[in-house]
Amino acid sequence: MWAGRRVVLGVSGGIACYKSCTLARRLTEAGAQVDVILTPAAAEFVRPLTFEALTGRPVQGSLWEPGGALSHVRLGQQADLVLVAPATAHLIARMAQGLADDLLTTLLVASTSPILLAPAMNDQMYAHPQTCANLERLCARGVGVVGPEVGALAEGPSERPGRMSEPETILAHAARFVRGAAGRLRGHRVVVTAGPTRESIDPVRVVTNRSSGKMGYRLAEAAWERGAEVVLISGPVALAPPIGVELRRVETTQELEEAVRRALPTADVLVMAAAPADFRPSDPSENKRARNDGALAIPMEPTVDILSATRGERRAGSVIVGFALETGDALAKGRAKLERKDLDLIVVNDALERGAGFEVDTNRVALLDRDGAAQILPLQSKRDVAEAILDAVERTLGR
């Protein structure tokens, strides 16, 4: 996302400046060219040398430094994003009035680039009617805002917003702000399923599979970054919820089916990346079976085929994506599944291939569509696979 992009990181004076160091580092590590502009007050909290060490670029802070008089024009017009974090109440007020009395505010007035603010201030200052009016005025001009959040402030705990969002949250919103503005998924509702399901043997034991949920979570993240409204229906996994995504948790295959059935009528896209259990105990016990009871035989019955069972709930013109994790002749089996379940796309991979499938961060897949085309992808990260799948979804939308 950030490789080769130019980001201006504006830092105004508040205790949350320390989080801006992490932002500078993360953006630089992701391949962005980061130019930091400090207000005089910000330089009292974090010295310019810190940001220079993190970005490998000189820090600017004054109109009177060499080149400073023109920097606000050059940087403000060449940047892919101007990110101000923290944005104090004072800075927000000056922006709303169009003041240009230091290098950062002068750049903000001159900028033709997208501008995203991460407010940070005392909770009473954030709640003040003038601060609210200033932010409303800026939002009406197209300025983006992420946060603030509820949490501990410099003066102690608070139950009202004022605390600057965490760096990872800001970066996620920054990516969506830049990328989603022109994304083809913007305004579309995307439903993604992820992870395994679990079927009870008794109150303690379950039947499940090796799915980690990583592929579905990467798909949800990438779709949200592209501007979509994303619902993630997740089985039991050990993953942090993706930022910005509506998470709905399920456990059994029946619960997954019910959740998909409810979501489909308003979904423009369904990506069925979950790995629901294909079988469940036909007569689960209400009590734990003791080991000393001897050998255990568990009668099993098939679970519902969710994509087939919910076909009638699909929205007209929606794009339906299935997954086929196979062993042996995967492409032929995937093609048969695509036709049998009336899918627009199917993602096929071999469960026995090293570095692909469950419990790893990489995958090697083939994308098959209903026109007979096959796109064979190399082994790559699951996030890169997610991007390729969503590229195919975007090509299919509106056909």
Question: Which structural traits does this protein have?
Answer:
399 residues, alpha/beta, Rossmann fold, 2 domains, eight-stranded mixed beta sheet, five-stranded parallel beta sheet, 14 helices, elongated
Task: Explain this structure.
The model has no long low-confidence stretch (mean pLDDT 90). The strands form six sheets. This protein has an eight-stranded mixed sheet with strand order 12-11-8-13-16-17-19-20, with helices on both faces. A five-stranded parallel sheet has the order 2-1-3-4-5, sandwiched between helices. The chain is elongated. By secondary structure, the protein is α/β, with parallel strands linked by helices. The protein starts with 5 loop residues before the first strand and ends with a helix. Helix 4 crosses helix 6 and helix 5 crosses helix 8. The protein contains 14 helices and 21 strands. The chain folds into two domains: 176 residues, Flavin prenyltransferase-like (Rossmann fold); 194 residues, CoaB-like (Rossmann fold, 3-Layer(aba) Sandwich), CATH 3.40.50.10300.
Q: Biggest sheet, open or closed, and with what strands and sense?
A: 8 strands, mixed
First-last Cα distance = 27 Å
Named at the architecture level, the CATH assignment of the largest domain is 3-Layer(aba) Sandwich
Q: Which CATH top level class of the largest domain fits?
A: Alpha Beta
Q: How many domains in all?
A: 2
What is the β-strand count?
Answer: 21
Q: Oligomeric status of the shown chains?
A: single chain
* Beta-strand content bin: 15-25%
Tell me the helix content: 25-40%
Number of helices: 14
Mean pLDDT comes to 90
CATH level-4 homologous superfamily of the largest domain: CoaB-like
Query: Helices and strands: which structural class?
Result: alpha/beta
Low-confidence runs: none
